[in-house]
């Protein structure tokens, strides 16, 4: 038996009783047909209760629950603190305001409650990042009384970063977070976790392996003492695609998305959402070499062109060596002749030193 059905029955009974009472009262005024008025208005009240009760009770509550479900936990907590603070200030001012001459003594205390509650909630929600960061810096101190960030300001710890499924499966996020280059809270919505579980349960062996790797990366992140990981039930109603949900959440929470998905990167940027792309980070931290510099490279294979050899630097940058075919499986000294930046990354052209 559903809640709507029970509420409809209760509303039907209540409205039927009220209708019968009003019908009897109307019959007394006219001094005739009290029973007929009671029966007719009672039936009208029962019908009205059966139709209108859900519109006045369960549906507004569901709408409110849906709205609150889309609000981040930090926002709800900050709003609650702001409401309590505003009520306390209003309570302190209520007594002196009540001593004012009428009608100010009666109106101003109530107006003060509304005004200070509104300003308290608004102020604390606007500064929720600072508040959460301050609480985080207090609660996440090590045994020596120093913060985990090694003296970093609590404002930096207030940052929230949404994680995409692809970046969890990629695995490099755990290494980056371990170094401390991701200050703040790594937020993983429940729908991202559900997609990761769906991939881990896939009948395809490769997809299943990627999903399980993502689960292992999450477990590794949660074990790291200097990384704050939070799984949230926050969701977006009316949207099915995970990428669309992430973009909407990032706009609502005003936080960046950590990903290595090129399509999500472009869609989010078009909608004004900040993106942290691990691939761009990897390209940015690669070694910088200039034409004329000498490198020691192990030639591992032939190149596409005739007599070319190919090797790789420690960071994975490809080095194309002219006339390097004869040096395959040998460590040689080469001189950089040209550096080419492509969409796929950086390529270095070199030739063996004479």
Descriptors for this entry?
elongated; 354 residues; five-stranded parallel beta sheet; five-stranded mixed beta barrel
Head-to-tail CA distance between termini: 88 Å
What's the overall average pLDDT, rounded? 82
Largest sheet, spatial ordering of strands:
3-2-1-4-5
Please trace the helix and strand order, writing H or E for each element.
Answer: HHHHHHHEHHEHHEHEHEHEEEEE
CATH superfamily caption of the largest domain? 5'-nuclease
Q: What CATH architecture of the largest domain would you give? A: 3-Layer(aba) Sandwich
Please identify the top-level CATH class of the largest domain. Answer: Alpha Beta
Shape: elongated
Low-confidence stretches: 142-157
**Number of separate helices:** 14
| Rg, Cα atoms, Å | 33 Å
Q: What's the multimeric state?
A: single chain
- Under CATH, the topology of the largest domain can be stated as Rossmann fold
Q: Helix proportion of residues, in percent?
A: 55-70%
Alpha-beta content class: alpha/beta
The total tally of domains equals 4
- Strand share of the residues? 15-25%
Q: Which helices and strands occur, and which strands form pairs?
A:
Blueprint: H1 3-30, H2 34-56, H3 58-69, H4 73-98, H5 104-126, H6 128-139, H7 154-157, E1 160-163, H8 165-170, H9 172-179, E2 185-189, H10 190-200, H11 205-223, E3 228-232, H12 242-253, E4 257-259, H13 262-270, E5 275-277, H14 278-284, E6 294-302, E7 309-312, E8 318-321, E9 330-342, E10 345-352
Parallel strand pairs: 1-2, 1-4, 2-3, 4-5, 8-10
Antiparallel strand pairs: 6-7, 6-9, 7-8, 9-10
Helix pairs in contact: 1-2, 4-5, 4-6, 9-11, 10-11
């Amino acid at each position: 038996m559903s809640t709507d059905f029970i509420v409809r029955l209760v509303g039907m009974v209540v409205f039927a009783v009220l209708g019968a009472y009003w019908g009897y009262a109307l019959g007394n005024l006219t001094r005739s047909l009290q029973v007929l008025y009671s029966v007719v208005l009672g039936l009208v009240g029962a019908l009205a209760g059966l139709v209108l009760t859900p519109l006045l009770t369960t549906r507004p509550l569901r709408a409110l629950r849906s709205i609150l479900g889309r609000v981040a936990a930090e926002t709800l907590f900050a709003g609650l603190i702001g409401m309590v603070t505003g009520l306390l200030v209003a309570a302190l001012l209520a007594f002196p305001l009540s001593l004012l001459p009428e009608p100010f003594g009666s109106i101003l205390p109530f107006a003060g409650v509304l005004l200070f509650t509104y300003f308290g909630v608004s102020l604390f929600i606007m500064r929720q990042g600072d508040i959460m960061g301050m609480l985080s810096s207090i609660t996440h101190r090590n045994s020596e009384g120093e913060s985990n960030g090694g003296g970093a300001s609590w404002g930096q710890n207030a940052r929230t970063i949404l994680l995409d499924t692809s970046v969890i499966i990629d695995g490099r996020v755990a290494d980056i977070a371990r170094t401390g280059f991701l200050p703040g809270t790594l937020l993983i919505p429940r729908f991202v976790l559900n997609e990761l579980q769906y991939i881990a349960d896939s009948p395809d062996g490769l997809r299943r392996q990627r999903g399980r790797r993502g689960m292992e990366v999450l477990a590794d992140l949660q074990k790291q003492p200097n990384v704050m990981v939070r799984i949230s039930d926050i969701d977006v109603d009316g949207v099915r695609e995970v990428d669309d949900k992430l973009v909407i959440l990032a706009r609502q929470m005003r936080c960046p998305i950590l990903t290595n998905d090129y399509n999500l990167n472009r869609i989010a940027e078009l909608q004004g959402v900040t993106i942290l792309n691990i691939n761009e980070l990897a390209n940015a931290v690669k070694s910088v070499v200039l034409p004329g510099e000498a490198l020691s490279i192990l030639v591992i294979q032939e190149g596409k062109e005739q007599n070319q050899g190919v090797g790789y630097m420690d960071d994975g940058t490809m080095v194309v060596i002219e006339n390097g075919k004869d040096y395959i499986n040998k460590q040689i000294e080469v001189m950089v002749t040209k550096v080419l930046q492509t969409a796929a990354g950086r390529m270095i052209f070199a030739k063996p030193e004479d």
